[in-house]
Specification:
Structural class of chain A: alpha/beta
Organism (chains A, B): Sinorhizobium numidicum
CATH architecture of chain A: Alpha-Beta Barrel
Distance between the termini of chain A: 24 Å
Enzyme class (chains A, B): lyase
Strand order of the largest sheet of chain A: 3-1-2-4-5-6-7-8-9
Largest interface: A-B, 33 and 33 residues
CATH superfamily of chain A: Aldolase class I
Largest sheet of chain A: 9 strands, mixed
Number of domains of chain A: 1
Subunit structure (chains A, B): Homodimer.
CATH class of chain A: Alpha Beta
Bound molecules: iron/sulfur cluster
Number of helices of chain A: 6
Order of helices and strands of chain A: EEEHEHEEHEHEHEH
CATH topology of chain A: TIM Barrel
Function (chains A, B): Catalyzes the complex heterocyclic radical-mediated conversion of 6-carboxy-5,6,7,8-tetrahydropterin (CPH4) to 7-carboxy-7-deazaguanine (CDG), a step common to the biosynthetic pathways of all 7-deazapurine-containing compounds.
GO molecular function (chains A, B): lyase activity
Oligomer: homodimer
Chain lengths: 245, 245
C-alpha cells in the first residue's frame, strides 16, 4: 500500500494477545503492532516482512482509530500492554495512538534501534532502545541515540536491549552499557536462523540458540557483569519462527 | 549434619553466579544459597535434595560468616543478587547474612511458600511468595501467608509465584491473585519430571513442559488475565535437571 497520508500508520501486522517473548516485559500478555518500514537493514533481521519493501504490498496504511479498534478488539476491550515494534516504529506517527490507548488504561512499549527520535517517546510506558551491534552490519549513530533518550525525558521505563552473536557484539554491548550506566541492560543471544519473510515453517537452529545462550551466560558471569540480564527469545523456543503467536 | 546451633544456617548448596531461571528476576546473574529442610512435602518438589531428611548428611551447618565468605568468593567480591531458597529458607536464621551482604552492596531475594514469617523479611530486596497449588498435595494456611506479608512491611519488592500443572492449579492461582491484587503475579508451568535427588542426569520431558507452557499462555490470554506473567524455568530448558549451574 503506497501513498499513506502523513497521519496514517503503516502496519505490517497486528496480533495477540500472546506473551512478550523478550526483554524487560518477558512473559507479559501483550498485543503486538508491527509497523512496516525500517531505516536499517540488519544482516540478521528477524522481521524482514516488516522491513523489506518487497513486502510493502502486505502493509496497510491505517488511521489511528483503525489501529486502535483492532487492538481493542483483540484484547476484548480489556486494558493490555501494547508493543509497538517494526521495522522501526519510530518512523510512524504513533503519538495519537498512545494517547488514545492511555485514555482506556492500555500501556505502550516501543522498541527501536534509536536512530530516529520522536517527542511522543515521553508518552510511552516502556522504551526499549536496541542499538545494533557489529554483526548487524550497521553503524550506530550515538548522537541520534542520545536524542532518543533526550526526547523520552526520563518518563518511560527505559532499557537497553542488545542482540549478541559473538565476541565483537559482546564488546559493543559492554561499551554501550558503560555509556548509559543508568539504563538496565538486556542481552539476547542472536538467532542466526531468522525467519525468511515468506516461509512460516522454516526451521530454526534451537540447539545453536541454546549454545549461544549458555555461552553468553558464561561470558557475563566470568566478567562479573552482574547487572546485565541474559534472556533468550522465548517465543522462538515455544513457537519457532511462526508469525502471529 | 545434626546439632546445628541456633545461629547456624543449614545449607544444602551454594553455587553460582549463574542466571536466575525463574520469575521476576529471570535472566539476572545470581548466587544461589539453597538451605536444607522444609516444613512442606510437595508431591512434585524439584529440590528434594534440600528437603528430604535422607539427604541431611549432605547439608552443612554453617555460620553466617562462613556462608558470607562463600558468597563473596563465588562472586569475586563483586556485589551480586543472592537468591535464598530451599527447602524453606524462612526456617533458617538469615537476618544477619542479609545485613552482612547489604553492607557490601549485595542484594537478597528470598523464595518461600509463605508458611513461616520472619521479621527479617522486611530487610529483603525481593520477596517471592510461592503458595503451593492443589497438585502439590499441600494445603495453604492463608493466615500464615498473611503474616509473611505483614512481616515484610511493604519493604521488599514482593511478588506471587505460582506453579501451575492443571486447571485446578490455575483456578487456585486466580483465587490467590484476586486475594492479593496489589502483588504482581508470575505463573510457571509445572515440571512433572523433577530431578530425583540422586540423579543429576535424569531426563526431563521438555516437550511436556513446553506444551504446558503453551497451554498456560492460552489459558491466561483467553481469560484476559493481562497482569499475569507466564514464564518457564529457563535453567531447565538450558541445563536440564543438572544441579549447580
Ligand atoms: S533495525 Fe530491527 S527491523 Fe530494522 S532491519 Fe534491523 S533488526 Fe530489522
Ligand atoms: S515448599 Fe518448595 S522446597 Fe518445600 S517441598 Fe514444596 S516445593 Fe519442595
Amino acid at each position: 500500500m503506497t501513498g499513506a497520508r502523513s497521519a496514517e500508520i503503516r502496519v505490517s501486522e497486528i496480533f495477540g494477545p500472546t506473551i512478550q517473548g523478550e526483554g524487560v516485559l518477558i512473559g507479559l500478555p501483550t498485543v503486538f503492532v508491527r509497523t512496516g518500514g525500517c531505516d536499517f537493514r540488519c544482516s540478521w533481521c528477524d522481521s524482514l516482512h516488516a522491513v523489506d519493501s518487497r513486502y510493502r504490498d502486505e502493509w496497510r496504511a491505517m488511521s489511528t482509530e483503525e489501529v486502535w479498534r483492532e487492538i481493542a478488539k483483540l484484547s476484548g476491550e480489556e486494558p493490555v500492554m501494547v508493543s509497538l515494534s517494526g521495522g522501526n516504529p519510530a518512523i510512524q506517527p504513533l503519538g495519537d495512538l498512545i494517547r488514545r490507548g492511555h485514555g482506556e488504561g492500555y500501556r505502550f512499549a516501543l522498541e527501536t534501534q534509536g536512530s530516529v527520535a520522536r517527542d511522543w517517546f515521553a508518552d510511552l510506558d516502556v522504551l526499549v532502545l536496541s542499538p545494533k551491534p557489529p554483526s548487524s552490519g550497521m553503524e550506530t549513530d550515538w548522537d541520534a541515540f542520545d536524542a532518543c533518550l533526550r526526547m523520552s525525558r526520563d518518563k518511560p521505563r527505559t532499557v537497553l536491549k542488545i542482540v549478541v552473536f559473538d565476541e565483537a557484539d559482546y564488546a559493543y554491548a559492554k561499551t554501550a552499557a558503560a555509556r548509559y550506566r543508568q539504563l538496565p541492560v538486556y542481552l539476547q543471544p542472536g538467532n542466526h536462523t531468522p525467519p525468511p519473510a515468506d516461509d512460516d515453517e522454516a526451521s530454526i537452529d534451537i540447539e545453536g540458540l541454546m549454545d549461544r545462550m549458555r555461552w553468553l551466560v558464561g561470558r557475563v558471569t566470568e566478567d562479573k557483569w552482574f547487572g546485565a540480564h541474559v534472556l533468550p527469545q522465548l517465543h522462538v523456543l515455544l513457537w519457532g519462527n511462526k508469525r502471529g503467536v
